[in-house]
Design a protein that fits this description.
Shape: rod-shaped
Number of helices: 2
Radius of gyration: 21 Å
Number of strands: 0
Order of helices and strands: HH
Helix content: 55-70%
C-alpha cells in the first residue's frame, strides 16, 4: 500500500510531463486553416 507522499510524488511527476509538452497546431492543420479554400464571413 502506498502512503500519501508516494501518491503525491507520482501525481506530481505525471503532471510535470503535461506542462513540459509543447502544444500547438500541427503544420498540416495550419495549411488547412490558412488555405485559400477556407473562407470565413459573418454568415458562416
Amino acid at each position: 500500500m502506498r502512503n500519501i507522499n508516494e501518491e503525491n510524488y507520482k501525481e506530481a511527476l505525471e503532471a510535470s510531463f503535461k506542462v513540459s509538452i509543447s502544444r500547438g497546431i500541427s503544420s498540416e492543420l495550419l495549411q488547412i486553416v490558412n488555405g485559400s479554400s477556407v473562407e470565413v464571413d459573418p454568415k458562416s
